[in-house]
Amino acid sequence: MSRSPKTISNEDPIETALLVVVNQDELDDTVVEEELIGLCEAAGVQPLTIVRQRLERPYKGTYIGSGKVEEIAIVAKDLKADIVLIDGEVSGMQQRNLEKVFETRVVDRTQLILDIFARRARTKEGMLQVELAQLTYMMPKLMSVYTKFERQKGGIGMRGPGETKLESDKRLVRDRISRLKDEIKEVKRVRDQQRTSRRKHPFPFASIVGYTSAGKSTLMNRMADTDVLVDAMPFATLDPTTRKIDLPDGYALFLTDTVGFIRNLPTHLVAAFQSTLEEVTFSDFILHLVDVSAPSWESQRDAVLETLHYLGAKDKPAITVFNKIDAANDPTLVRGLVAEFPNSVAISATTGEGMDDLLAAIKRQVQDLLGYIKALIPYSHTSLIQECYNFGRVLKEEYREDGIYIEAELVKEMQGLLAPYIITEA
Ligand SMILES: Nc1nc2c(ncn2[C@@H]2O[C@H](COP(=O)(O)OP(=O)(O)OP(=O)(O)O)[C@@H](O)[C@H]2O)c(=O)[nH]1
Ligand SMILES: [Mg+2]
Hints:
It is a single chain. This protein is α/β, with parallel strands linked by helices. It folds into four domains: 15-119, 3-Layer(aba) Sandwich (Rossmann fold); 123-195; 201-368, P-loop containing nucleotide triphosphate hydrolases (Rossmann fold, 3-Layer(aba) Sandwich); 370-421, Alpha-Beta Plaits, CATH 3.30.70. It has helices at 29-43, 66-79, 92-102, 109-120, 124-151, 161-199, 216-224, 267-272, 274-281, 297-310, 331-340, 355-369, 383-390, 412-418, and strands at residues 15-22, 45-53, 83-86, 105-108, 205-210, 241-246, 252-257, 285-291, 318-323, 344-346, 371-377, 392-400, 403-410. It has a six-stranded mixed β-sheet with strand order 6-7-5-8-9-10, sandwiched between helices. Strands 2-1-3-4 form a four-stranded parallel β-sheet, sandwiched between helices. The protein binds guanosine-5'-triphosphate (GTP) and magnesium ion. Residues 210, 212-218, 230-232, 234-237, 260, 323-324, 326-327, 348-350 line the site of guanosine-5'-triphosphate.
């Protein structure tokens, strides 16, 4: 059994695939197909043809209907496909049943995405998370094989080597999973420390979130002068980058660019990437980037909102950033959207159009997080003054007879500390 994430170099031979697209709504056909082809490209899989199956819900034994199964078997053989790729989440039993009929490997959507992630992982944390996702994904499949054997148990001679092997495989996977979790915990501890030390600065944190390929890294590079990989392929970014961004009038914030979301993002993946995605959870607010040049931008946006919900970050303050307006078909639509959606702006991360609006919106959000206060701090608590400088913007400081008078914009935690000394207007 493989003990480390599958790392595939670009020299790996391209595998050919017959794609099986399973979606209910005809209107989504093109979008779903294009997206799947994009995922194939990112995984180094060459699509040969697409077979479509419209399903209310998957069949128990084979996921797709029996007529379709036969059709696919013939076409796959005809085209000599290396794999049959099913755009859904297929159980271990379904996978085995299908492989028997197709006489090829069967790969599902989750495995495909995991493969792309395995290719993209660069940091230790990324690699650990991908391996954890792969193993947690594999575990129930292994279990189902095991259960099948167990059901046959009882007759003399049924306690075969197969079962023993599965038993030990299962234990190996479990051990590895628990070791990975420990290692990730350690990485997370370091990340928590970094976050705490960032917290010592007066700057709020924001994360750029959005559907994969929405332009998050392009925007990050523009705002922070970074050199994050920008690529039209899905999941170009896996590991998060955080930079301090200077805003107009002396404000600043920490901005993080991270992994993109996708519809039907496998939950194993979100769970395994919890430590990376925590950057989003701990953010003070979110920049939700929406690619308005994509015909399916609305369902992309909904998929992102769903994932944010899963992460418990649904109610965070957010600026909706409509991106790629240079490529949008209908500029009036974009203007309408900005008018319709509260706290939204329209930009092109490529050309820089609309950046002033975005920076102004971010500044407003930062100001919202910093509360304006006036306080008179007794001389017995002068250390608080330094903290005001550390946790906000001090606008005025006067040494008076009865204490130090300050006017400042401060983060919430600091406002709390000063509560007893705050002067409310008469
Ligand atoms: N026309 C146009 N293209 C853009 C714009 N912003 C980004 N792109 C293109 O969109 C593609 C994806 O951009 P990225 O910045 O890699 O997107 P991302 O959201 O970071 O994607 P992942 O990291 O894969 O989730 C690239 O080909 C970019 O050049 C824009 O404002 N206009
Ligand atoms: Mg990116």
